[in-house]
């Protein structure tokens, strides 16, 4: 009987770990790959990707992170909404915007983490926008919101 209880407890703990939300953040500039003006980076969770396109005649490697933009959803919790983009500057001076996507869905609801790094502003038509310009690794963090 003790053996069955221990097996059940182990299975439940493992399944709980796999169901936990994975914290994502804007990719580090060094982890962003590019070819012919298409920029990609892996996400922390399997099945996702960061993707951006630039129409420059001279696409180049990413030099630095600039900012992240988040659009708050409607409701009482402004930390839930859609991540608009993570913006970078390339070595040739172009601005490159990467968008977070999973399974071809372009608008994935997310919840902000490290809320202190995100600065709130009011946009047009009642839109609430949060911007993160913190250059520290994982500062502009979020999790997918189910």
Please tell me about this protein's structure:
Helices cover 12% and strands 45% of the residues. By secondary structure, it is mainly beta. The protein has one domain. Strands 1, 2, 3, 4, 5, 6, 7, 8, 9, 10 and 11 form an eleven-stranded antiparallel β-sheet that branches. The longest helix is centred in the N-terminal third of the chain and has 18 residues. The protein is globular, with a radius of gyration of 18 Å. 20% of the residues are buried.
Unreliable segments (pLDDT under 50, ≥5 consecutive)? 1-19
| Dominant shape | globular
Number of E-type strands: 11
Q: How helix-rich are the residues, as a percent range?
A: 10-25%
**Element order: H for helix, E for strand:** HEEEEEEEEEEE
Rounded Rg: 18 Å
Question: SS-based structural class?
Answer: mainly beta
What does the oligomeric state look like here? Answer: single chain
Tell me the domain tally: 1
Kindly, what is the distance between the CA atoms of the first and last residues, rounded to a whole number of angstroms? 37 Å
DSSP strand content: 35-45%
Q: What is the number of helical segments per DSSP (H or I, 4+ residues)?
A: 1
Taking all residues together, what is the mean pLDDT?
A: 85
Query: Could you give a short account of the major beta sheet?
Result: 11 strands, antiparallel
């Amino acid at each position: 009987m003790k053996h069955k209880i221990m097996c059940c407890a182990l299975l439940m703990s493992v399944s709980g770990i796999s169901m936990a939300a994975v914290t994502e953040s804007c990719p580090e500039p060094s982890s962003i790959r590019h070819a012919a003006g298409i920029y990609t980076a892996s996400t922390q969770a399997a099945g996702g990707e960061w993707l951006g396109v630039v129409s420059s005649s001279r696409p180049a490697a990413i030099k630095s992170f600039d900012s992240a933009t988040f659009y708050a959803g409607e409701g009482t919790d402004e930390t839930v909404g859609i991540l608009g983009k993570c913006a970078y500057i390339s070595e040739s001076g172009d601005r490159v915007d990467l968008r977070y996507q999973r399974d071809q869905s372009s608008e994935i609801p997310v919840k902000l983490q490290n809320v202190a790094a995100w600065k709130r502003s009011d946009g047009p038509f009642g839109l609430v926008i949060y911007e993160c310009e913190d250059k520290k690794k994982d500062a502009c963090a979020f999790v997918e919101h189910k």
